[in-house]
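Example complex used in Figure S2.
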Amino acid sequence: QSALTQPASVSGSPGQSITISCTGTSSDVGSYNLVSWYQQHPGKAPKLMIYEGSKRPSGVSNRFSGSKSGNTASLTISGLQAEDEADYYCCSYAGSSTFEVVFGGGTKLTVL
Amino acid sequence: EVQLVESGGGLVQPGGSLRLSCAASGFTFSSYEMNWVRQAPGKGLEWVSYISSSGSTIYYADSVKGRFTISRDNAKNSLYLQMNSLRAEDTAVYYCARDHPHTAMAFDYWGQGTLVTVSS
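Predicted assembly (232 residues):
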């Protein structure tokens, strides 16, 4: 199974909103409501930001939201803050004949 | 407080073996499914393996199938990854990650990672 496709980089100014896309196929993103998103700061472990496409874990700011349309999932960050600058990864269950989990290649968010 | 602490990483020659451990605390380890996820230097995340709470169900990524073995000891609150026939492409930081309790394949807590370097 191929990795999910994310833009290599996105940028935005403080206070603005940005959206990161995550494109898969009908075998992963399109078939299951099991897309999650992770934030990773340099040298740190990833942090769960969104699960099941649009649900936020306790403690995650409501500035982070997720959605899905067809084979593409999206992460939107509103009211950009300097501390949002990080790498973001999407992830989806991709099992059909075999159990598989696939990640996107990651998107570097720069807050200008 | 949930804590996951990996250990056992290091430098190993191609073809060699290494056993990673992940010590869990702050939650009822025996009730949670667990995973290993790795990240090659400067690269993205890659799911490696999954084990159910009882250890009865196990899955592997194709890239490690037949070479890596995941296991757990619920009495010791510990997760393991036995890695054999290591290759240069297995070089990565290896994270243990807990499955979210209310859904599948969302990793809600991660360890700090342990670096495995495969090189001669």
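The CA atoms of residues 82 and 93 of chain B lie 15 Å apart. The longest strand of chain B covers residues 18-25.
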